[in-house]
Input
Amino acid sequence: MISVIQNTYERNPFVRESAALTIKALEESKLDYQYIIFNDKGDKLIFEDIKELLSDKVEYVYSEYNFGMGVCSGGWVGALPYVKGDLIHNTGQDDVFTSAFYLELTNQLKREDIFLAYANGFVVENNLSTQGALMSAMGALDYSNPKQVFNQWFQRQGNILGGANNFIPAPGVIYKKELHTLIGEPDLINFKGSADFEYWARVLYNDLGVSYVPKPIWLYRMSEYSAGSKPTATTDIWNKLILEKYQKLVDNE
Output
């Protein structure tokens, strides 16, 4: 089973559409799935927008604690106790995923040596019209070289990591729940809304297998509600902590 967590915190025109289209894709994929709409201490009226989507496979959870600290990506941590699947996909509140995305990545994760799989996507406007591919350069990486992948994901220049960006595979990533046993839980205390970024760095640090699908098979919507459109000052602070914690990945060059 795959557990999909859609993090929400603002009521906006795209939450319901994103959920409905992604749920449709999961149905088309014929995969066994669980879909969690996780309201991370956001607008309670979000429930009114999505309540007709709820079913035995689709559930809504409201959190009185703000796990993401105002950043959507961090909300996944709060939803983890509700996860039933052995695969986890943490999505944003306005992105859209296709059946090809779920089929391609779950197929990658059938390999015993792969623990995290991600895919290229399209950047789209509010109406889902395409602006271009998101991260085609990822296909040129040597995934047997964790240092090289780390440098590209975090756009490292010497001892500086880039700000929030989608070279880090979020939200177009599916990973094995088994990671929580192998490398521990996401570090919400130190990394707050960037806990997912730090978690992917931890995967590389532990030299666990990562796979990339170069085809753009999901839609990253860059709207005024997107986490990526918000100021990155605090993310820059967390990125500095990531660099300090995983210095071994960039030493001895």
About this structure: The radius of gyration is 17 Å.
